[in-house]
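Reopening this one. Same input as before:
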Amino acid sequence: MKNFSTVGTRFALAALFAAASAASAAPLKCEFRPDAPDRHVVVKGDTLWDISGVFLQKPWCWPTVWGMNRDEIANPHWIYPGQIIWFDRATGRLRLGNQLGEGLNDPSTQKLEPRVRTEGLGKDAVPSIPPGVIEPFLTQPLIIEDDELKGAPRIIATQEGRVFLGKGDKAYVRGDLKDNSSFQVFRPGAPLKDPVTKQVIGYEAFYLGTLKLQTEAKPGSDVHTFTVATANQEMGKGDQLRAVPPTPMQNYVPHPPERAVDARVVAVYGGVTHAGQNQIVSINRGKLDGLDVGSVLQLYHAGRTVSDSTGQKSWFGREQQVKLPDEEVGSLFIFRTFKHISYGLIMQVTAPVEVGDVAKSPE
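Same output, byte for byte:
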């Protein structure tokens, strides 16, 4: 097996990557693995992240070696089990085929560029990351920002004065339903504070279940009658409602953010202090800061500030304060974005991630 090491291929990669990241402040390093295979047969259970790691040292380089545009990054429903991904070493590109051939120079070998599949769109397509890990986070209102709570319908009374409601129980609700009939019920939790500014940037909401409208308020009244459709946790008086349409799994290709992002880890989901691989964290940057689904950030432990006892002291006799370099510890795949907050799944990690750690654009 040949290694990807020719000068010409490296120049090709550099050119491709420059085109794909024209908006970035500096070109990113994008190289194939020294042990990259000539081909990979896609099997059920593969993810784009896994396949990227077979060929590339950095999975977020995937769009570069395919020469993809933004539309293709956002709609990667073109890789299916049974297809073959070829490593074209001469051009430093990956190609997609539906059958095994004698070699990349054989014109009879079917080689396809990534494209949107027109029949059965998305069905059985290889996902970006394991969907089961993040599915509960796609439809539940887990982050509440700004004044989103203001004016939200709320439970004011329960059936027969019960303290908590269960499935099938009645709940009495006040508030503007805005022509919606199905609602999710949540209870605001602890505030999320920016680790840098210490300002509250949102609230993590506890998802309790769903309510279905039974009877809308009659003329002269503003009290609606609901029935509990599902109850994940106990809900009761004071809990709030929010109509949120289901959010489908967005299958973006792993890619760097469209502009430089420098974020901090705000919280580890579940209230713990440290996170490992396949755990979820929130960061203090969102869609208004240039993040979208599929954006990949590198995770770092923030370098400590130490006293340099070996250097020259100030005229006050104080030692100089020096910040140590940030230490890279892993990578973060952004799968849900709010205005100024995002959820990310830790993909790889060499040390536990904690609140205050740095998450920034790949270098």
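So the earlier flakiness isn't reproducible anymore. For the record, The first strand starts at residue 39 and ends at 41.
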